[in-house]
Amino acid sequence: MATVLSGTSGALYYKPAGTSATFKEADVDVSNDQITVGTYLNFKVGDKVQFSVEDGSGGTGTGTLPGGITASTDFFVIAYTASTGVLQVSATSGGSTITITDDGTITGSNVFAVNFETFQSVANVRSWEFEVTREEIDVTSIGGTLGQTAPFRTFISGFADGTGSADVYFTDDDTGITARLIEDVTQRKQAGATFKLYMDTVVSSGTVDDTKSRSIQVEAVLTSASYSVSPDDAQTVSISFRPTSAPTFDFSKS
Amino acid sequence: MRYQEVRAAVESPIQTAFGALSPAVPVFFDNITAAPANTTTEYVKVSIEFGLTTEQTLEGNLDRIRGSIVIRVYTEKGKGPARNQTLINEAVTTLLNLSASTRAATGIYLRSGAINGPTLSTTEGAPHLVGRIDTGFIAEDHG
């Protein structure tokens, strides 16, 4: 017999806003082991990132990453200056700057990309909601054969859209991803903000097993944060977000 | 969850307030035998009950302690309410001070809620007039 899931099987994982950027060969400073990835992003010291080569539309591109940087390998932000956009990474958390030996090779519309790597659990989430809607297009035609009953209108569905929200407890711990989620509403550059909304979170060996879990993954922009403070209630912040592309629905347990 | 420290945050100022009166009025707390019911000695009894002590999240629980405080003041029966209300006022003042407290970076931060009462009652055969106030409280444990 199937078991109805309760809310406690759910979870909300998040990649922060402003943690996705592209750069080109000229942005690689070999002499100082620095990369200029763009100003006023939101990389924080300790963020785990990975580098890749993308084509102009975000797909897999062709090229060679700068020397010292390997694709599909974790690197850790050790410095990012928002006003200049200069990024430095290390190979280990808290380690020293990697040595960049050359500025890599890309051609045409290909770019180097750096992205926040791993979804992080937002532990203080009380609940989340996500709604997908479709436009309704009225295609009713007139002139049909009259009968006993009134003719019904005819609709077809149009573009899809969505909205989401999450209620988050405001705690005295501002070191986790929760505080970052709340603050990201005012982050100007939202690229990288991605939610993974789990309905069914299955954990194996201490980490979420995505092959057995079921979730909705959605790149989003954060659209509002509503703060609620009263003497009788726990402090909460209600975050709203909206997809920037089609969500990925993974409702399969295999 | 430091229930004992939360309890102390309530009990200690009440103990201090009534201990500073002249003469001092004894205060009894939960699971401590109160003054014998057949005497006319004044005393105060404080009861603390914990209610919800966590907030549930999708991933587990966060600390947020709520509960209630009941303070009963026992004064001599048949002498009018004045003395009882004087002592009740001492308890109310202590609770108001708790409610006006500010949070330090660490430790227990406790605020009492709206105060209900006082209600005065007597029981046939018992030697005391009993004044009662009660209030809720919210406590945060900041380690």
Please give a structural write-up.
The complex is a heterodimer of chains A (254) and B (143). Helix content of chain A is 3%, strand content 44%. Chain A has 254 residues and is mainly beta. Chain A folds into 2 domains: 7-13 and 121-139 and 151-250, Pnp Oxidase, Chain A (Roll); 18-116, no CATH class. In chain A, strand 3 and strand 4 (34-36) form a beta hairpin. Chain A is globular, with a radius of gyration of 23 Å. The mean pLDDT of chain A is 94. Chain B has one domain: STM4215-like (2-Layer Sandwich). Chain B is elongated and about 55 Å long. In chain B, a hairpin with a 5-residue loop joins strand 6 (108-122) and strand 7. In chain B, strands 1-2-5-7-6 form a 5-stranded mixed sheet, covered by helices on one side. The mean pLDDT of chain B is 91. Chain B is an alpha+beta fold. Helix content of chain B is 24%, strand content 40%. In chain B, helix 1 (3-19) crosses helix 2. Classes of the chains: A mainly beta (254), B alpha+beta (143).
CA-to-CA gap between the ends of chain A?
19 Å
Helix content of chain A: under 10%
Principal-axes shape call of chain B: elongated
What ranges of chain B have pLDDT less than 50 throughout 5 or more consecutive residues?
none
Q: How would you classify the helix and strand content of chain A by structural class?
A: mainly beta
Sheet-strand content of chain B, in percent, reads 35-45%
Order of helices and strands of chain A: EEEEEEEEEEEEEHEEEEEE
Largest sheet features of chain A: 8 strands, antiparallel
Number of strands of chain A: 19
What series of H and E elements makes up the topology of chain B?
HEEEEEHEE
Largest sheet of chain B: 5 strands, mixed
Q: Could you give the order of strands across the largest sheet of chain B?
A: 1-2-5-7-6
CATH architecture field of the largest domain in chain A: Roll
Q: What CATH architecture of chain B do you see? A: 2-Layer Sandwich
Stated plainly, the CATH topology of the largest domain in chain A is called Pnp Oxidase, Chain A
**Backbone structural class of chain B:** alpha+beta
Distance between the termini of chain B: 10 Å
**Could you tell me the radius of gyration of chain B in angstroms?**
17 Å
Mean pLDDT value of chain B = 91
* Number of helices in the DSSP assignment of chain A: 1
User: How many structurally independent domains of chain B?
Assistant: 1
